[in-house]
Prior knowledge:
15% of the residues lie in helices and 34% in strands. By secondary structure, the protein is of the alpha/beta class. Strands 1, 2, 4, 6, 8, 9, 11, 14 and 17 form a 9-stranded parallel sheet that branches. The chain is globular and about 55 Å long.
Amino acid sequence: MSCYSFKGHIPVVHESSFIHPQATVIGNVIIGKNCYVGPSAVIRGDWGEIILEDGVNVQENCTVHMFPGKSIRFRESAHVGHGAVIHGANLGRNCLIGMNSVIMDDAVIGDECIVGAMSFVKAESIFEPRSLIVGNPAKKIKDVSDQMIDWKTAGTRLYQQLPNDCHDTMLQVEPLRELPKNRPVQEDFYKTLQEIKKS
């Protein structure tokens, strides 16, 4: 993994977590158990402290940073979707930050909130637990239902299993030049929220 010290601060990463070799973790960063950090994600604790509690995932192309002197925390099972930017904000337990969202300084996303994809959360915004948050600027449009949070939690469990799967099976390889006869079949073990609503 690409970890760098900064002014004497060395990242602390629990051995059960998986930081992709193409991710970058810098300085005063503490990463708990069963966390996943995807390729091209950057967690930059050069100017302040960043804490990822157990079971957090920060997916591909995300950026986590803040202004100097701040400390931010992603509570247990927080889920940060592909391409999101978290700048100086705190994320509640089991929340979901949608893909390509931007969460600005001193914002607080409460426990079990869901932030829709491509939302922009203004600095110092505070959202109570179980808020469904969308738009630019982002606003609460309704409460998160039990069905929605069950779906979100199931998705996060996949990411909490992923570090172990990566440690056990991920290898850097040369690509094949043709399809093998016995190519493995991938499991179908997840339903979208729309599929769940229809069932």
